[in-house]
């Protein structure tokens, strides 16, 4: 059984003031109540802690050894209570987000900045990974929120679509891009650099399948940013999320909508039983307000 903090605090007052009566006045108790607390603490530890020398109450040798520990324990207790004040007032908290690389680079920073402006004490961590790993960590409560391309499946999850973006054909700036946008047949004749796996690739494959074709990429990568760099170097064509094409390498790329138009949806995913703290609600609201 841990030591009683109230008894320790009373013991400190007795030792500092040298009087049970003065300690009683300090803590707002009667003198017999203070004596009882010291007696119970002595019984708990099996040693005598206070002795009377003349009219003064002084700590014994054992009491002096306990005193430094008692001070640290009560100080830590006070510090622990003070650390809870921002949480109690809703001014602090922690949110652990899992996301793919594109969203973490081009979408999350603005949402996080807005959330932290509303809650300066909010601590946000972001883990980048593939959707399967992120959802697994979300289910295990290692993450509070996942931001991922949809669809996402899982009985324990609450899924909220919040942003739809277009998937664009992208090529080196000197490439001959069809004026009305390329279709699946046009792109299948090009050296294709495509994302490997996940819902982003799945939506491209489904778009190709709807045209009766199958994509046979020259190269596959697990990084949209790597694909963008290779396309900018003139090594092939690709279909990439619009978010990834808003900045960086824009002077080296040409982009276009495809025919028919292709989009993907991003969603926020939480456990159904997750307590939505103020911090989590704030970051989710900032994501809903994201305009691209």
Give a brief description:
Helix content is 44%, strand content 24%.
Can you offer a commentary on this structure?
Helices cover 44% and strands 24% of the residues. It is α/β, with parallel strands linked by helices and 292 residues long. The strands form three sheets. Strands 3, 4, 5, 6, 9, 10 and 11 form a seven-stranded mixed beta sheet that branches. Strands 1-2 form a two-stranded antiparallel ribbon. A hairpin with a 2-residue loop joins strand 1 and strand 2 (56-59). The model has no long low-confidence stretch (mean pLDDT 91).
Low-confidence stretches: none
User: What's the total helix number?
Assistant: 11
Secondary structure category: alpha/beta
Mean pLDDT: 91
Largest sheet, strands/sense/barrel: 7 strands, mixed
Number of strands: 11
Q: Specify the overall morphology.
A: rod-shaped
Give the SSE string: HHHEEHEHHEHEEHEHEHEEEH
Oligomeric state of this protein: single chain
Radius of gyration: 32 Å
Distance between the termini: 56 Å
Strand content: 15-25%
Helix content: 40-55%
Features:
11 helices, 292 residues, 44% helix, seven-stranded mixed beta sheet, rod-shaped
Helices and strands in order:
Elements: H1 5-17, H2 20-27, H3 31-45, E1 50-53, E2 56-59, H4 61-88, E3 92-99, H5 101-106, H6 108-118, E4 121-128, H7 131-139, E5 145-149, E6 157-172, H8 184-188, E7 193-195, H9 198-210, E8 219-221, H10 224-232, E9 238-241, E10 253-257, E11 263-271, H11 278-288
Parallel strand pairs: 3-4, 3-5, 7-8
Antiparallel strand pairs: 1-2, 5-11, 6-9, 6-10, 6-11
């Amino acid at each position: 059984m841990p030591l009683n903090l109230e008894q320790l605090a009373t013991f400190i007052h007795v030792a500092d003031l040298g009087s049970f009566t003065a300690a009683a006045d300090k803590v707002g108790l009667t003198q017999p109540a203070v004596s009882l607390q010291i007696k119970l603490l002595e019984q708990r530890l099996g040693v005598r802690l206070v002795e009377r020398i003349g009219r003064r109450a002084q700590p014994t040798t054992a009491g002096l050894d306990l005193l430094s520990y008692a001070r640290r324990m009560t100080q830590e207790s006070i510090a622990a209570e003070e650390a809870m004040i921002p949480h109690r007032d809703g001014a602090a908290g922690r949110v652990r987000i899992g996301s793919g690389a594109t969203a973490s680079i081009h979408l999350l920073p603005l949402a996080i900045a807005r959330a932290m402006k509303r809650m300066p004490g909010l601590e946000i961590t972001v883990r980048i990974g593939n959707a399967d790993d992120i959802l697994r960590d979300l289910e295990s409560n290692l993450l509070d929120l996942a931001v991922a391309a949809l669809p996402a499946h899982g009985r324990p999850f609450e899924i909220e679509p919040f942003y739809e973006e277009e998937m664009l054909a992208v090529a080196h700036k000197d490439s001959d891009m069809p004026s009305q946008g390329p279709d699946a047949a046009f792109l299948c004749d090009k050296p294709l650099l495509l994302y490997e796996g996940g819902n982003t690739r799945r939506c491209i494959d489904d778009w190709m399948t709807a045209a009766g074709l199958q994509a046979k990429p020259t190269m596959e990568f697990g990084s949209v940013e790597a694909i963008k760099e290779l396309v900018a170097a003139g090594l092939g064509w690709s279909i990439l999320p619009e978010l990834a094409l808003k900045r960086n390498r824009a002077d080296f790329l040409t982009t276009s909508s495809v025919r028919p138009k292709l989009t993907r949806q991003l969603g926020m995913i939480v456990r159904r039983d997750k307590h939505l703290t103020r911090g989590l609600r704030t970051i989710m609201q900032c994501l809903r307000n994201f305009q691209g």
